[in-house]
Amino acid sequence: MTVRMSSVPGPPRDLTRTTLAVLFIVGLIGTSFWILRPFLAAAVWATMIVVATWPLMLRVQGWLGNRRALAVSVMTGVLLLVYVVPFALAIGTLLDKADRIAGWADALATVHLPPPPEAVHRVPLVGARIAVAWERVAAASVDELAARLEPHARAITLWFIARLGSVGAVTLEFLLTTIIAALMYAKGETAANGVLHFAQRLAGGRGENSVRLATQAIRSVALGVVLTALLQAVLGGIGLAVAGVPFVVILTGVMFLLAVAQLGPLAVLLPAVVWLYWRGSSGWGTVLLVWTVLVTPLDNFLRPILIRKGLDLPLTVIFAGVIGGLIAFGLVGIFVGPVVLAVGFTLLKAWVVEGAPPPPEVD
Known about the structure:
Blueprint: H1 15-63, H2 68-96, H3 98-107, H4 118-121, H5 127-139, H6 142-164, H7 167-186, H8 188-243, H9 248-260, H10 266-278, H11 282-295, H12 298-310, H13 315-329, H14 333-355
């Protein structure tokens, strides 16, 4: 005689309890982000800096007898010097040359730009366009030119105010970034293990691979962006020094910052060319103009090549990440954009390959 055991149904799911639990978790996460919102930008910048320079920090630690505190102090001091020294040098130079700059400003009211020399017309590709624009500016009076530039100057000023805010706010955010970066340098392994464990808990081995890919993307972008900006700034500074333009050190620093911000050195080199022609140094002005045409487009092909050396991704994905991230998130988007696209592209590729049918066997 067989006895059939009836299956005992489990306890019914409490839909209300599950819904409230999910809402509570979502509210807790949202509130936490709202509280930490003033620190998010600094935390993102600090993360990018620490991840990109972590191998250098370990090397410095080895040089200092594996003393982490000294290595953290050195790296933090370098971060401060990167900001404080150029900033102090620029302010000191401007104060020392205040009378000279004021004289230049007064002289601008009587400036009359001469017509472009014949050498400008002979510049390859862009010479004719530059000459036409030059002639239009030379034909306009100072008052007319000021009236034309006023709306653009106002728009540019408002844009900079909206993006950067006051100097005090930028300085405070930089100091906050430095403090967070110092804490990450001190506890880097602990933070990395925590992120890896979270990724494993979330998506297993694929999550861990995504974290490692993001780290590789950050370092590759930092290598491509910083080296390209440094090369453009150095080449632009050499051109300015050879042509006899003053304030070469400060202008080189400005070109480096503009190149990092993906604006390029043209905003410094082109006014220097105009200044040389205005002073009557048409020969050096033509030389610097040709040098500007050669230096300015370097980043268009050099930066993606350097990024791809450390990141095995299609060039289109890298370029879209850098440019799209800059437009979407500002300067920090240069790093965030490629990281997000690299992880997304790799996960999508793995998912497609995983679901693809096996290739047919060949008899």
